[in-house]
Design goal:
By secondary structure, the chain is mainly beta. The chain folds into six domains: 249 residues, no CATH class; 116 residues, CalX-beta domain (Immunoglobulin-like, Sandwich), CATH 2.60.40; 76 residues, Immunoglobulins (Immunoglobulin-like), CATH 2.60.40; 81 residues, Immunoglobulins (Immunoglobulin-like), CATH 2.60.40; 73 residues, Sandwich (Immunoglobulin-like); 82 residues, Immunoglobulin-like. The protein is 4% helix and 41% strand. The protein has four helices and 52 strands. The protein is rod-shaped. This is T9SS type B sorting domain-containing protein. Keywords: Signal. It comes from Taibaiella lutea.
Length: 734
């Protein structure tokens, strides 16, 4: 009556919520049994004695159930329908439905076995089938949940059991037992939160005086992503030893006890009923940053655990096939084709020791296919009951996925390494990394110059053959440009233009330039610019920037444009001098530098008043330059005249008395003789020379010429290039 009153209160206060598991009810015995059955089990003769609404297949959407899919057997509804709640509700929904099915004798015996009571069972749901195991053990996973939690922990409770019968079992045996116990059934009174537990009630009677096992209980009242029931167990495994290849019977049953109020259900994991007897478990040594079991050449060995479900008093030899792309004895140390699980133990280890090779060959796979120690078929061929693999990688995994970047000096950058989490790592050069120690996978250096940052990974506790792996990131740093200007302060004259060539150092980079303002310049972007402007003062700011990071620097220059100047006087203007005379040239102005051109016949072409001694007509140009570099130009023209004083004698007497002994031209100064010929009256040439200092000594063919009248023809070139001739006769006197 107490249960009924509480039922009415809960129904009146129930709320609706969306299901967190999907359930499809009203399954066949074959569908339920096949869903439960996994490897190493041959299923036969399934039967179902259960209301269609009380069984189903489920798939987990979001729940703390711990099982992703499977079958469910319940004392009420399996699937929620409107306001009639099954297992797929949320806490707060009340599941309590009577199916009208009778109870079960095995369950009735089980519920009364420890309490001495005479409670009857109702609403039973029973799935039974025969099976042949290929191994020496069977095992399957399950969770039991109930809405009797927690108000009725230690009173009259619903009951379930998994009963196995066959060779070795005189009577059906319940294998739904609390872990670590020999015969404590799993139930509401044995696994709960401890509320209402006291010596003398079922919470102690059914646990043989130990009290409820609270560590295995899951409180579901506060969960919003679970099942309808208020509480449930953790995921348990039902395990039993069997004789390989014999036939057994399994009965899975659940029922209400005493009355049909408050539903309970048992969830069985899909495919978990197996009897392979041997399982393979790969153990990865890590290092390659992949969840796939693996090991690294030269580094720590990988392992494959070969386990059986329970220890036996005799050792077990387990054979297996070795396959895959990795070559036994080449890519890894030679392994045999079998291991022995020692007596009274459950596991043996296959060690995969990866070997170094000369050249990297890419990942290689070692595949282990374990063969059943028992052969239940008729072919006589061994049966593969489990398969696993371990990959062998060439090297430890490390990379720096940070994208390349170019920055300016002292710019902070973030460099991140990606490594296998199991590895040790270090950065270098550590002195250039300002992050606090110990350094993490992301560092924040501020490089001043192009710098390589290297992360190196090692495997902890690895043999010396395990080679470290390094990855390097190049941080490219562009320098701050240093501008070189032709001058910071320049003075030019009006009407002058000036080339402005600037450049940045260090050389070798394609710098960009900007001039501000751009007025009076050829453009605002060239490093080889040109200025032309009126009288005034001009300031320009020049900025240079690097091509990628745009690291910039600036400098400024001033240009002062001043008015031009003029000579006050230049003397003489146009003048004439005699050949051989000299004359002073002079200029008056504010010039501080002078250049006279040409420099011919000048004593100093760089002075204000040079002396000129021209031997021909000359035009001299003088350029004056003042302190600002402004120029003026003037010209002086000088005409040079020559008055020859030469004369010819009309007679000479070559008698050796020292007077008139030689016939020659007199008073020659600057003239150049180009011809001096003397002929006798017969036209015969008696003298030919061009040396005005020698003349004719009155001989012919080295003999004195006779006294007579002779004829001469003389040519002279005067200064300035004028040609003159002298013709006449002269008397030779003896």
């Amino acid at each position: 009556m107490k249960k009924l009153l509480l039922l009415l209160g809960i129904i009146s206060g129930s709320i609706s919520a969306s299901a967190q598991i999907d359930v499809v009810d009203n399954q066949t015995a074959q569908a339920l049994a096949q869903t439960l059955t996994g490897a190493g089990v041959i299923l036969m003769n399934p039967t179902l004695n259960c209301a269609g609404i009380a069984n189903g297949k489920f798939t987990t959407i979001s729940s703390n159930l711990g099982i992703d899919s499977g079958i469910v057997l319940a004392t009420g509804r399996a699937m929620t329908s409107g306001g009639a709640y099954g297992v797929n509700g949320v806490p707060g929904n009340f599941a309590s439905t009577s199916t009208g099915f009778p109870g079960d004798a095995n369950l009735t015996t089980l519920i009364n076995s420890n309490t001495g009571g005479s409670i009857q069972t109702h609403d039973a749901c029973i799935l039974e089938f025969d099976f042949i195991p290929s191994g020496d053990t069977i095992k399957f996973d399950y969770v039991m949940g109930s809405d009797e939690y927690t108000a009725f922990n230690c009173s009259i409770n619903d009951v379930f059991g998994f009963f196995i019968s066959g060779p070795g079992f005189a009577t059906p045996k319940n294998i739904a037992l609390v872990p670590g116990t020999a015969n404590t059934m799993v139930g509401i009174s044995t696994v709960n939160n401890g509320a209402s537990a006291a010596p003398g009630n079922p919470c102690y009677q059914n646990t043989f005086g130990n009290g409820p096992y609270t560590a295995y209980y899951v409180d579901n009242t506060a969960s919003s992503t679970s099942i309808t029931y208020n509480g449930m167990t953790q995921v348990f495994s039902a395990v039993s030893t069997v004789i390989p290849c014999d036939t057994y019977h399994l009965k899975l049953a659940i029922a209400d006890a005493s009355d049909d109020v408050y539903d309970s259900g048992v969830f069985l994991k899909a495919g978990s009923l197996n009897s392979t007897g041997i399982q393979l478990t790969p153990e990865s040594t890590a290092g390659a940053n992949t969840p796939t079991p693996h090991c690294i050449r030269g580094c720590r060995s990988g392992h494959v655990g070969v386990t059986r479900n329970a220890p036996r008093i005799t050792p077990l030899t387990v054979k297996y096939l070795i396959e895959g792309t990795a070559v036994n004895g080449v890519d890894y140390q030679m392994i045999p084709d079998s291991v022995i699980i020692p007596a009274n133990q459950t596991e043996a280890i296959i060690t995969i020791k990866p070997l170094l090779v000369q050249y990297a060959s890419g990942p290689k796979e070692v595949i282990i296919k374990v063969l059943s120690p028992y052969n239940c078929g008729t072919t006589g061929l061994p049966t593969i009951i489990d398969t696993t693999s371990i990959w062998i990688y060439d090297s430890l995994f490390a990379s720096i996925p940070t994208a390349p970047i170019t920055v300016c000096p002292r710019t902070e950058i973030a460099i991140t390494a990606d490594i296998d989490p199991s590895l040790n790592f270090s950065w270098s050069p550590a002195a250039l990394i300002p992050d606090p120690l110990p350094l993490g996978l992301t560092i924040h250096p501020k490089p001043v110059v192009p710098t390589n940052y290297t992360v190196t990974v090692t495997q902890p506790n690895a043999p010396i053959t395990c080679q470290p792996v390094s990855r390097t990131y190049h941080a490219n740093v562009e320098p701050i440009p240093q501008l070189r200007l032709p001058s910071h302060d320049t003075i030019i004259c009006l009407a002058d233009s000036i080339d402005l060539e600037v450049f940045a150092e260090p050389l070798g980079l394609a710098y960009s330039y900007n001039w501000s303002p751009a007025s009076n310049l050829r453009n605002d972007f060239s490093n080889n610019n040109k200025f032309y402007g009126g009288v005034g003062d001009y300031k320009y700011v020049i900025t240079a920037a690097t091509p990628v990071a745009h690291c910039s620097n600036k400098d400024s220059m001033y240009i002062h444009v001043v008015p031009p100047f003029e000579f006050q006087s230049v003397t003489p203007q146009d003048t004439t001098i005699k050949y051989g005379d000299k004359i002073k040239l002079s200029s008056e102005s504010e010039a501080i530098y002078w250049i006279w051109d040409p420099i011919t016949y000048l004593d100093d072409p760089m002075t204000r008043q040079p002396w000129a001694s021209p031997l021909k007509d000359m035009n001299y140009e003088v350029v004056g330059i003042n302190k600002y570099g402004c120029r003026d130009t003037a010209e002086i023209r000088i005409k040079v005249v020559y008055d020859p004083k030469t004369g010819m004698p009309n007679a000479f007497s070559p008698n050796g008395d020292g007077t008139n002994d030689v016939f020659k031209i007199g008073n020659i100064q600057y003239e150049k003789m180009t011809q001096f010929k003397v002929f006798n009256r017969y036209g015969q040439l008696v003298y030919n020379g061009i040396d005005p200092a020698k003349g004719w000594d009155g001989t012919f063919n080295n003999k004195p010429a006779p006294a007579d009248v002779y004829y001469y023809h003389i040519k002279l070139t005067l200064p300035g290039g004028k040609q003159v001739e002298y013709k006449g006769d002269v008397t030779l006197i003896r």
